[in-house]
Amino acid sequence: MFPLDLEKKVKNVFRVIKKKTPWFHYPPDKPYRANSIFTNGWNYLVKESSVILTIGNVYYDEIDEDIFEKLTIEEKQIYHCIYSLHYNGYIREKHITKILNYENLPSWTIPFIFVQTQRYITEIIPLIYERFKNDKCFFKEFVANNFEHIKRGNDRMISYWNLHCRADTKNIKDYVGYKLYKEIFLAYKNKKRRKGIKSPTNRPLETVEIKRH
To answer: Among candidates 106, 153, 10, 71, which has minimal Cα distance to 1?
Structure first.
C-alpha cells in the first residue's frame, strides 16, 4: 500500500487505528469477512523503484483527535491516505481534503488522490482540480508511467458524469472532471507514447504487510 521505506511509519499509524473487523460487500448481495482491510486494488508505479497498491474501501473507525495530534506530519499524511479510501463518502471527502491542504505532497500520495477522480463521490473532483490546475507537473511522471490506468480512469469519470452530473452539466466539456483529465492527466499522453512507457500492471508488487492483531 505504501513504499517500503515508509514501513516503520505505516506500522506506527496502524498501531493507533482502532481495531474493527472489516466487512466487504463484493458482490453487493454477498457480504464476506475479509482477512485484512485491503481489497480490490490496482498497481500504480510512482517511481521506478516504488510500486504502490491502492485499494477499494477500508472500514476502520477514525482515531481520537488527541491521538492523531501525536503523529508526525508524514504519519498524518499516511493516516489521511488510508481514510481517503473509507467506505463512508463523507469521511472519504474529509480526508482527501486534508491531503490536498498540504502544501508539499510526497509522490506516494498521488495514487490516493488519483483514484478519487474515478469514483462516485463527485464532490471531490472539483477539490482536486482546484488544487492542481496550476500545478500540473505534480502528476507528470505518474501519468507517463501509468497511462493505461489514466485511460480507464477517464472512462469511469465519464460514466459517473453520465449517471450523476449530466442533468446539471449537459455538455461534458463543461464538467470539471473532463477539465481535470484533459488539462492535467491527458496533457502528457503524446509524450508518454513517444517514450513507449508501458503501464506497470503486471510488475511484481512491493508492499508493506501489516499483520492483524
So the answer is: 10
Residue ranges for the chain with pLDDT beneath 70: 1, 18-56, 188-213
pLDDT (tens digit per residue) in 77-116: 999 999 998 888 899 999 999 999 998 899 889 989 998 9
Residues 6+ apart with CB under 8 A from 129: 176, 177, 179, 180, 184
CA within 13 Å, CB half, 86: 18
Q: What is the mean pLDDT of the chain?
A: 76
Are 109 and 76 spatial neighbours (Cβ–Cβ below 8 Å)?
no
Backbone angle region of 34, left / alpha / beta, with phi > 0 → left and psi within -120 to 50 → alpha: beta
Q: Are 189 and 196 in contact (CB under 8 A)?
A: no
Q: 147 with 189: CB under 8 angstroms? A: yes
Tell the burial category of 209 from Cβ atoms under 10 Å away from its Cβ (0-12, 13-18, 19+): exposed
Whether the bond into 27 is cis, omega within 30 of 0: yes
* Distance set, CA 55 to CA 52, 69, 172, 188 (Å): 10, 26, 28, 25
Taking the CA atoms of 127, 61, 12 and 141 in sequence, report the sign of the dihedral they define: negative
pTM across the whole model: 0.76
Q: What is the pLDDT of residue 196?
A: 44
Neighbours of 5 (CB within 10 A): 11
